[in-house]
Design brief:
2 helices; 101 residues; five-stranded antiparallel beta sheet; 5 strands; elongated; SH3 type barrels; alpha+beta; single chain
């Protein structure tokens, strides 16, 4: 996946606002309206054109979806709504801890 570099103060603020919310089981709504529910694992790095940030979401079927933080409109906790399904699938335990690595 190619990540967009964070180039403006507004983009940096968007990333800064999202980072504290991307923990545990979350529902991410992308700018195009796509919703993804999964266990969040943050990643950042430095590319040739500047810093970038992304989140890898482990979804219900165990697959991983990589999302550039600059493509995210909103993030909300999905713990109460989706916990049972993720526990049943063996992706997390009852406490919310991931069981896949």
């Amino acid at each position: 996946m190619t990540y967009r570099p964070i180039r403006t103060d507004e983009e940096q603020q968007q990333v800064d606002d999202l980072l504290p919310q991307l923990f545990g089981l979350v529902k991410v709504t992308k700018l195009d309206g796509t919703e993804i529910v999964g266990l969040a694992n943050l990643g950042t790095g430095q590319g040739e054109e500047g810093p970038f940030a992304h989140v890898v979401l482990t979804i219900l079927d165990g697959q991983r979806v990589d999302v550039d933080l600059l493509d995210i409109a909103t993030v909300v906790s999905a713990f109460l709504e989706h916990r049972a399904a993720f526990v049943a699938a063996g992706i997390m335990d009852l406490s919310g801890s991931p069981t896949v690595h």
